Every structure is written in structure tokens, then in C-alpha cells.
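Weekly structure sync, notes
Attendees: PL (lead), two postdocs, one rotation student
Agenda item 3: pending single-chain targets
PL asked that the sequence for the first pending target be pasted directly into the notes so everyone works from the same version. It is reproduced below exactly as submitted, 933 residues in total.
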Amino acid sequence: MTKPSHSHTLAHAALYFILGALGLSLAISPGYSSPIFPAAGLALALSIRYGMQGIAAVFLGSFILNYCQSLLNSRDFTDAAIISTLIASGSALQCTIGAALVRRFLKPGWEFLDNEKPIFNLLLLGGGIACLCSATVGVSSMYLLNIISFDEVSISWWTWYAGDALGVLLAAPLFLLLFQTEDQRDWLRFKSVAIPISFAVLLAGGVFYAASRWESEELNKRVTEEGQKIQRLLETRVTTHQEMLSSLKRLIEVNPDINRVQFDQFTKLTLDEQKDVTALCFNPLVLQESRGEFELRMAKELDEPSFVIRERSSNGDLVTAANSAMHVPVMYISPLPENRKAVGYDIYSEPVRRQAIEHSMNKRTSAATAPIQLVQDNRTRAGVLLMQPVFDEEILNKQYGDVKGFAVVVLKVDDMVRIALRNQLDNSLAFRLSDAGSEPGQSVFYQTNNWTNSKLIHEYTWQTNIGVADRSWKLEITPTASYLKEHRPVFAWVVGVLSMFFAALLQVMLMAISGRTELVRRKVSEQTQFIEEQKQQLEITSAQANAANLAKSRFLATISHELRTPMNGILGMAKLIQLESNNTKQKEQAEIILSSGEMLLTLLNDILDIAKIEAGKIELNTQEFTPKDLLAEVKRLYEAQAHHKKIELETYCEEASNACYMGDAGRIRQILINLVSNALKFTEHGYVKIIANASQFTTAGQIELRFEVVDTGIGIAQNNLARLFQPFSQLDDSYNRKHAGSGLGLSIVKKMAELMGGTVGVESVPEQGSRFWFTVRVTPSENPEKADNAQNKVSLSNPKENLQQLTGNVLVVEDDPINQKVTRAFLNKLGLTSEIASNGALAVQMVRSGYRPDLILMDIQMPELDGHGATRQIRAFEFENALSPIPIVALTAAAFAEERTRCFQSGMNGFLSKPVSLIELMEEIGKYLVQHG
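Predicted structure, written out during the meeting:
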């Protein structure tokens, strides 16, 4: 048994308080305990692990929890302390008995909880049996202290017991694992049980909350329906009285000389039917100057010589009314015997009645008083006057116009409510009717006895307002504890208990599984260590393979760069010979050099593309193009080769393929060049056809373009088709000897087509020919009128006719002497002058010395200072001296996309990759220089 410190005891008490508050938050009000009380499981674990100090923590936590709960329920400090002490004692007794039962009946080693039997025995003894204590002590104490009634004892005991038992089922095993000693504690096992159980409890709590909310809404709905029924009955009654008042008013207006006998005859039948009406009366408006005349008339009519207009004194007695500009005394009232005291009473003398009179007179409409004590009623109960002004067009005075007096209905509101409801109000519902505009202590018309004598559940109160003349009456319906007992919802409680019970069963299963798993884990620990060592070795091997792959990519990129530099000189000089020579033989020789160089460049590009594909750095460049022009361009490239082999080279485009699309025309051209080159290579006679067609694609309005290259060549055997489109794959050595090739072309074709959303395929018959096809996805161009110009670029075959003459001076930053000569020669062909800087440092020095060329062609890899550094220094110099930036175009043998990005980040404006053609150079620098003419 572990002995904790005092700080641990306080921490455990705080944890008990938190879990207890969480459990009580799930309780269904009123009279329900929580469907789960996890603090009971914590209490059992504390008692088992820490003995008396654990029990002390339980008592302290329970006392604080219940003391706070009692104060929230508006109990005084003494009562709160007593009930909290009793409940805390029951909680401490429960965990003490539970721990004693576990130690007495469970065998040594149970604390590991590694199989089902000790787990079930723990829960049975500590939960099923021990939890009888707290429920019995707690409910008995609450009953003896009059907190709950006898009718609530059974349900309160059962819910208390069930909540504690479920709390032990869920929480006790977890806390027993948590409170194990350091050498026993298995955090992995604890997490494997705690995490799923936490989710299961949250799910069960959510189900319980939803069910309780549904039941609460149903209860609210039931109370609302009761309230609305009462509202309709009262509104009907009020409407009847208002109609009766209107009839009385009209009678007086059409019979201005009505006498008392006639008044009594009219009102008798009405009063017989409306038992809640104390009186119907007519109160004339009497000015002070007419008071004497009125009193004489009434004295004679009533045979009462001493008749005077009266009012109430400060002590409530009826006395002669003081002089006032206006009086509204009771003149005719029926039935007279019961209301004799009210005759002559000036209702205008009393403030509440006067307010209603003035409102009725000013608004010329009906009005009602606030709750009043009737003059003729000796009982203390609220009444109300409904009144309407009676008009007489023959009477007109400056202050009161044509108001003759007031027809008045005197209501006993309590009688009106009883008559309206006719015993339809559930006796377990509390009912109150009050005037919304009066002071709280003076506003109540009527309320049932249980409004003050019973426990009201205000959270389910329903209220509304009823319009009575110019006032608003507030109607409130509130269920009592007995009402909730009669309509007690059990669905949510059952759902909560069942949900938590199944969560507890899940925990038992997880505890048993995890216990057995722990035994297995210890047996396989050595194998696990061996596997980890193997895994580390595999990771090392994988890292080495990745490093080798990276080295291969770097090697390919380096070889590509180093080959492009001399190729720029070779192809450049050959192009200059082709352009400048008038000797036909020299032109043919230059054409051969160019053709061979372009084949070598194609191979180099294939190698570079493979490197990009493996590195995942292939990017698409979307632009406008037409398939028709694309096919025509490819045809021009291979017309000479086809003519030399006496093979027909044809193109065919369907009508839809003549349209203009948005896609990577360069990659499509590259695929076609690969396929056409192969077709010409393996075809000795017949033809090669390049076909394009288009079809509408379903995704986002895309178009699927299909290109085919059909030849009458040697064909391919069926068993060799599967080897196509794989890197470095060729059919056999005989093909290699007769037809040169690297085996990369079709692999690149496949990758490029897939990048553009398409696929590739082949159909072939040996000795008859082959049909290679591929598809790509493109979108229609938004500017179809540009279709004719979409690919109207300069052809490589006849560049002389398309050269433009430019104006300006260009600084060529290049360390290779051959490339310096080629670049200067190309610039001269374009009409430009140039200067040479053999490295980046020299270029920076020239600019800082005041040399301001119109454009700079910047190599990247150079000694002393590379192109990036030179560009940054030039840009910094321009910024410091407020100079306009010189256009800088990269001219580099690097061809990866990231190099292009680095160039732009360094401050360059354009990018050209070696070997560069004269046309490409002209198009790029033409963006920044002025053309002749």
C-alpha cells in the first residue's frame, strides 16, 4: 500500500471534486442523480492504493463538492454543512468497504488486472456491492433533512446507486493502472485502454445529452400546450366581457334618458350568465359646477337625502369627495343590492382608476385598470374595471369634448379564471395571472395555491401576455415537482445508463486484451529489438540508394551542361556557314553538321528529360497552338530525311484539329519528333503518316487530342510490345546494330503524355508496320482568332527569310572563347554591336566604370564570379545610383527549371539555354531592343 504525501492527498481531493462535478453536470433535473458518477471509481482506487489517506481525500473532495452544490441550491450554511458531511461520510464508507472486500476475496496478483476474472471480481465487489452504501446514506440523509419527499426516495436511491456503480465500472480499473508503482506502471497499456474508453464515454455522454435534451424539449412542449390551452380559454372570456361592455355602452348612447329600471332590466340577463362580473354600471362625467345638481338628483332618486359623491380616505373609509374639476361617480349599477356601497363613489378620485379613465377619455377607446380592491367587496382579492367612454354629440365642453361618461364592467378576476378554466388546469401545474404594467407586489390578479406552497421547476416555466383593453396581463404556467414526477422522463436516463454500461464492458474487454498483450509483449521483446535493428539497416540502405540516385541525377545534369557548351559552338558555327556561304557543297556540309548536332542534341535532351523525370522536376508550359501547324512543323523537320529514303511523309488533321488550343505545344512536338524519328528509322519503303484528331472530353470542358504515327516499317512482335515505353529498353542486339538509338525515346513519350493527362499505346504487325498513338488533354483557346498565329513561329529550316534587324549594343559575358565568337557572330547577323567580358567580375567592373550596354547576355558558370553574383552586384549598383536597370538575359548550358527560377530570382529578365539558335536569340533579345525601320 503506497503512502502519499499531504500534497498528494489534496491533489486527489481536487481530482475527486472535478470528476464529481463532471458527473453531476449530467444529472437530469429535478430529483435525478447522474447516470454515471466517475468519482466513485476514483474513490475505490484511492482507498485500495493509499489506504486511510486515500479515504481522507475522498471525504474531503466529497464534502467540498456537496457543500458547493448545496449553496448553489440556496441552502443556508448550516444545512449545507450538515448534508455535505453526511454524504461525504457515505462516500468514504463506500470506498472503505469496497477496498476491504477486494483485499479479502481477491487473490495476490490481482492488481495487475491482466485477465477477466480479477477484473470482474473487482467490479462486482467494489461496484455492485459497495455502492449500496453511499446511495443509502445519501438518500436517507436528504429525506430526513426534508430535501426530498418520500415519493422521491426510491427513484433517487436507484439513480444514485446506478451512477456510482457505473462510475466504478468505468473509472476504477483505469485509476488502478494509473496509481501503480513506477516498476509496475505500464503507460502503453494505460493509453491503449484510456484513449478508446475516453472516446466511448464522450460518445455515450453525447447520446445521453441528446436524449436528455429531447426529453427536456418534450416536457417544455407539454407545458407549452397546457399554457396555450389556458391562454385560449382566458382570451375567450376576456373577449366576451369586452363585447358585453361594448353592448352596454351602445345601450346608453342610443338611450340617453335611460333610467335605473331600464338599466337593471338590460343588465339582469347578462349578469345571470356572467357570474364573474361583480357589476355593470354607468358612471357619468360630472363637472364641479354640476356636482350639486347631480347630488340632489341622486338623493331624490334613491330616497337618500344625505347622498353625496364620495371617495376613500387615507385609512380606507368612504367620505365626502373633495372638490375637483371633474368627478366620475357611480350612478347606475346592477345588481344594486350587492353593490349599494359603490353608488356615488367617485372612481376618478382613486389614482389607479383615474389613470384608466384618462387613458380611455384621451384615446377615446376602452381601458382597463391595474389590480384594485373593489369598494363593494370586503374580501382581499383583486378586481379590475373595464371601461369605455360613452359619447353624446349634444354635450360639448372645452375640456372633455363629447364624453358623457363611462360604461364600466366590474370583474372579479379570480372568479373569471375559475369559470374560464372549468377545472381544466392540471393541479400539479402552478398558475399565475398578473398585470404586466404594475409593480411586482401589486400586480397579481390570481395565482394557484401551489405557486407558493410547492417546489416549482422554473426552468420549464411557460409564459405569455394577454391583451385586455389597453393593458397586458402576464400568464405564467410552471410545473411543480409533483408534475414532473407524474410525467417523469426515463428515456434519457435509461439511454445514459445503457451507454455507460456498454462503455464499461468495452473497458473490461480492453483491459483483458491489453493484459494478455502485455504478457505476449514481454516474450517478443528480443524479436522486436532484432526487427528494429533490421529496420535501421534498411533505412541506411535506402539512404544510400537515394544518395546514389541523387548523384546520378547530378551527374546527368553536369554532363548535360558540359556537352551543351561545345555543342553551342559546333551548331552555331555550322549555322553561320549555312547562312553566309554561297557554296552549295559547303551548305550541304553545314546541313550535315547541323543534322548530326541536332540528333546529338536530341539524345542529350532525352538524357536530361530522364534526369528531370526521376527528380520530379518536369514542368509544363501552356501556350496557344494548333495541331495542324504542329504537324506541319514536324513534317518540315523530317522532309529531307524522308525524301532521302524515298518514303512518303504525310500529315492528316480532322476538322476539329484545325482549332486553336491551350497546352504544352513543345512537349507535344517532342513526343511527335520521337515517334516520327523512330518511324523513319525503322521504315525502308512505303510511308509514314502523322494523324491528329480531337474529341470532346467530359472533365471541365477539356478536349482530348489524339495523335498517331503510322508507318509501313518492320513492325514489332507481340511478345516484345510489353518491353516498349520502358527506359533503356530495346528489342534486341540486331536492332542496335542496324538502327542506332538509346532506348530512351519511348520512355520519355510515355512520361510526357501522362504528364499532360493522356496515355500511349501501340499496335503492330511484324513486316507490315506499326501504329504508335498518344493522347493529351487540352482546353479550347479563349482567342480562336489567334489560331493562324498560334504557331506561326520561324522555321529552323529557312531562318534567313525571317531574320529581323535590331539596334543596340550588347555585352556578352562568356568565359568560353568559341561561344564568344558564335554569340558575337549571331549578334552581328542581327545588326547589333557587342562587347565581351570573359567573367562576371569583369562585367561588373565595366558597368561600374560607366559602360551602359542596351542588353547583357549573361553566362552562369564562370570563374571568379558566376552569372548570379554578377547580376546581383549590377542590380545593387543600379539601385544605389538610381539607374534604370539594364535588361539581362541568361545564356547558359544549364537546362533545369530550377536554374531558370534562380536566374529570375537573381534579377535577370530572360533565359536562353545553350545551344541557342539564331531565331531563339533574336526572339528573346528582340523583346528588349529596338527593331530597324
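Discussion points:
- The longest strand covers residues 769-780.
- Confidence is low (pLDDT under 50) at residues 731-742, 786-801.
Action: rotation student to compare against the earlier draft before next sync.
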